[in-house]
Amino acid sequence: MDPFKQMGDWKKNMDHFMGDNFWNEFEGIIKPTIPQLNIYQSDHELFCIVNVPGLDDINKLDIYVDYATLELKGVIDISHIGGTVIKEEILQGAFERSITLPFPVRADKIKATYRNGLVFIQLHRLISETSKRNKVNVRMLEDD
Predict the structure, then answer these.
(1) Together in a domain, 58 and 15
(2) How would you classify the pairing of strands 62-66 and 134-136?
(3) How confident is residue 135, by pLDDT bands cut at 50, 70 and 90?
(4) SHSP domain location, by residue (predicted)?
(5) In terms of domains, do 59 and 94 share one?
(6) Beta-strand (E) ranges in 77-133?
(7) DSSP assignment, residue 20?
(8) Which run of H or E residues covers position 39?
(9) Alpha-carbon distance 20 to 92, whole Å?
(10) Are 94 and 113 within one domain?
(11) Are strands 138-140 and 111-115 parallel, antiparallel or unpaired?
(12) pLDDT, tens digit, for every residue of 101-110?
């Protein structure tokens, strides 16, 4: 018998018993969130580091900032063909993440760069109350 079918049946039964939203609480445990992200805060600045390996076209990565929300959309694609997978820890696939920032940020002072599989996003605290969703341009940095 197919073990994945058994798992699907088990999940359906749990959904029926616990409710459709039961699994939402476990999503980060069962399937870790991608891309991985670190955010560092200083007095008036946020510095975000996002793990996006294998990105060869920065136009395939969308970063939006809207007031106090950072949105990330793209695809992590490790292009390896052939052989049998023995161990696979690098998460791949399409992602869409929305992160609530600890404070509103300025739309006119955003900097994003990509190097060695990491996106570096620098954001500055917003003092006024106007809000507007802004697309962030990412520059490719060449290896030294």
Answers:
(1) no
(2) antiparallel
(3) confident
(4) 28-141
(5) yes
(6) 93-100, 111-115, 118-124
(7) T
(8) strand 37-41
(9) 26
(10) yes
(11) parallel
(12) 999 999 889 9
